[in-house]
Amino acid sequence: MCTRIKKCPPEGGRYNTAPTNQPMLVSPVLQCYKKNMDKAAAALSPAEFRRHLFYETSHSPSLAELVGYEKAKEIIDFCFIANPYYPTPAMLRDLQDNFPNLIKSYPSSNPASSQKHLAAVLHVNPDHLIIGNGATELIVLINTTLIDRIAVPVPTFGEYIEKLKDQRDAELYALNPDERYTLHLPHYLEWARKRGLKSLLIINPGNPTGQLFSLEEMTDFLSQAKDMEMVIVDESFIDFAGEKIPSLLQDAGRFSNLLLIRSMSKHCGVPGLRLGYCYSENLYMLNHMRQFIPTWNVNTLAQYFLSLLPATDADYHVGRKRLIGDVRWLYDSLKAIRGIDVYPTGANFVLFKIESGMTAAELQGRLLSDHMLYVRDCSNKIGMDQFHIRVASQGREKDAKLVSALQTLLR
After folding, report:
1. Is the distance from CB of 41 to CB of 365 less than 8 angstroms?
2. What does the pLDDT look like over 125-145, one tens digit per residue?
3. What CATH class does 5-11+22-84+316-410 carry?
4. CATH for the stretch 89-311
């Protein structure tokens, strides 16, 4: 039975169960995920739902974990953040045609070619790029090889706290919920100095809030923060902040303590390929990280995808600008719904707070069971309450289904 998450078997573990005529489509662990989700969707204890949903991780489980790969195709995923317009259909056909050969081939052990492909579309020096097996691999490397103590505004992306050598090395700067968790850069810097910290994290646009700092605000802050040994700026969502991208990439040469990190899952729409990168003019930091990167850390399919970027860059920007319009429509549509407080956003997602008394876990369960829509309950993020939901735009047609479902459930 899976009435409590603590009764679920460990990963790879099994219960001794009686034979059944039903085919074993997923493991006992994932069956337990499914049963717990069904119970949450039936409006059972939100506390129990959260224990299931965030079991041993601060990240939501994938739909395939929850319901299996086939069932997942029937559900619209607003939880995980990825560009719905890229890769293009032609790129997907290219990847599919080459898949039999790619999967049988070792990836290159030399990252230079992939760095050149990526640098061509970013318009940066390829020697100052590190490409990782997702941004999370790079976050782990940064946390374990470069950081002793670091200032982290919360709520935030959990990997920056959870993957430190010691979680006590993170000095948490709690953002005020009455101010919509707004980060005030001058006060943050002053607070870090008083704490004797030499490393800072900023996510711009913020995750999960979507708060956006302009390029001028960021360069002004970095000019004031030159006494810091390292300023990590996560720009995973910056491509959706405006038609002209307000990234620090072209200004990185002005700040030797700046380390930029970006997830390609978000803006390139390929979370399954596991691609991310960091950029800095500080070769000492980069070369120190490179010592710890495994050979073949980027798989062959991902390397082939990177080779397609220069020829499809124009298509990428068409899709990027289209998604910016979709997010604006989603934001305006959510603002018209009573019972929620919608946060401004500079990203390809929108955060809102439920004000009707329903919790985020309850609303998430109802959307999944009644409408086949999967959203992000932010309750487990440090510093955030149990009433916030984050939704990533999946294109105008799918976003409209979410808006309609919320209108039904919150009226």
Report:
1. yes
2. 999 999 999 999 999 999 889
3. alpha beta
4. 3.40.640.10
